[in-house]
Amino acid sequence: MLASQFNMGKSNLIFRQLFDKDTSTYTYILACSETKSAVIIDPVLECVERDLKLIKELDLNLLYGINTHVHADHITGTGKIKLYPTCKSVLGSKSGAKADMFVEHGAKLKFGNLTMECRSTPGHTNGCSTYVLHDQRVAFTGDALLIRGCGRTDFQQGAKEILLYNSVHSQIFSLPSDYQLYPAHDYKGLTVTTVNEEKTLNPRLTKTLEEFVEIMNNLNLAYPKRIDVSVPANLVCGLQD
Amino acid sequence: MLASQFNMGKSNLIFRQLFDKDTSTYTYILACSETKSAVIIDPVLECVERDLKLIKELDLNLLYGINTHVHADHITGTGKIKLYPTCKSVLGSKSGAKADMFVEHGAKLKFGNLTMECRSTPGHTNGCSTYVLHDQRVAFTGDALLIRGCGRTDFQQGAKEILLYNSVHSQIFSLPSDYQLYPAHDYKGLTVTTVNEEKTLNPRLTKTLEEFVEIMNNLNLAYPKRIDVSVPANLVCGLQD
């Protein structure tokens, strides 16, 4: 089944996808249209002014600055975005980093009349989380699942191919097939996918576990350019003293 | 009123926004979920393979390759995308360029069970068109209206500030305030806006006509890098002999 972004069931969600060209990172602003309570997912340090300007223009009240995980490719904007007075930084409980609030697998994050479920989807990093809005039939997958791809499994906490494979299959592919999936990155200009698309078209995760491990072990990826700057900063939520 | 992308009234629209980083151009794929009939708006030559791959993956039947106008910043993909057998290129009737089909102001373009209204919105170029899907409460504005901006008015067919101002006010700002607006470009990573947002926040088009002309006459924009290559190619719909 092909889902439409314009047909997401009952919805009082204000939604904005934002892009950082330098790192091909997607940031998301979500808000309850009734109360204006809002969250931002995976803000990028260099784009915080753009994001806060939009939040102000839309008259939103920012409650949470969420990182789906400790990023290795860019410095999170959550440290700076906390200049917004009501905003708390949020990370998965297994991230091993600093944040104002930690969310466990199965936890519900409420903003206004919206509820977002946190699902633990480790593999790319130990603390990776996927956030699901069931009423809107949409999930934010971070780097666990990308459009026709997935996050790498060879750094931060060591080789975790099996963990990632199981996370995606048990926590994301188990969602209804029409759910829209929004990733933390895309490098080809694609913006969104669906559970059904990735279950049928993902060139890695449609394979058997053994084939998947083989693929991931032979990617021969370069050492991430910004990892030595990004990870230490992101372990403290991007706060700069 | 703030509209949600997830609350677009009755909808059988499959919708994909695609981005070209080199030129910050947005391409859109729209399709009827019942019949799979599809159109593509403003494809970019260098991204045609990506676009056709997605069209094939989604099992769509491409009917039209639409250019909102004769672009000056990139070569259209419509010439190449016509390798897809059922696809016809479409341009506004006042564009002064080649295409398989020309649409007049007020014309309705049907694909499957969806209907898209063409509105003539000249100013950036003479042939600029905005395409409106009323059932989905969404419009594709090309370069007539950008997010917190608008297309330049100083090239191709001469100074056309008054024309652009009147186009936006009479054809776009006259739409219901919750309609989502998708532009042909954004240079800051924003993806969508609404009629209400631009009517209240656009720094140029909220001004009086006199102030708007003054602003546009003092932009001091550089000569577009690719105009001498792009416009001649786009005048023949990007077809390469």
UniProtKB/TrEMBL annotation, chains A, B:
Transmembrane segments: none annotated. Residues 24-185 form the Metallo-beta-lactamase domain. It is found in: Mitochondrion. Its EC number is 1.13.11.18. Keywords: Acetylation, Dioxygenase, Iron, Metal-binding, Mitochondrion, Oxidoreductase, Transit peptide. One of its GO terms (cellular component) is mitochondrion. The keyword Amino-acid biosynthesis does not apply. Its main location: mitochondrion. It is an enzyme of class 1 (oxidoreductase). One of its GO terms (molecular function) is metal ion binding. InterPro entries: Metallo-B-lactamas, Mito_Persulfide_Diox, POD-like_MBL-fold, RibonucZ/Hydroxyglut_hydro. The keyword Glycoprotein does not apply. It catalyses: S-sulfanylglutathione + O2 + H2O = sulfite + glutathione + 2 H(+). One of its GO terms (biological process) is glutathione metabolic process. Its cofactor is Fe(2+). It comes from the Eukaryota. Homodimer. Monomer. Interacts with TST. May interact with RELA. Belongs to the metallo-beta-lactamase superfamily. Glyoxalase II family. This is Persulfide dioxygenase ETHE1, mitochondrial.
